[in-house]
Amino acid sequence: MFTPDKIIEIFCMADDFSKEFDLEAQTHQIETLNKKKYHRPSRMSESEIMTIPIGFHLGTFRNF
User: What is the pTM of this model?
Assistant: First the structure.
């Protein structure tokens, strides 16, 4: 079983990675042609989404 501190630690590492990855990806992106974006912002951050499968794979259970 994960303690809340371990889950927070995993979330912080995922959040740091996500921020660094986004900054690096922006420097390597090709410019868009001013097309409209129809993508809604998600309700969960990328870090929260990444923490869920990381916790699943590190856990000893398979009933999620």
Answer: 0.74
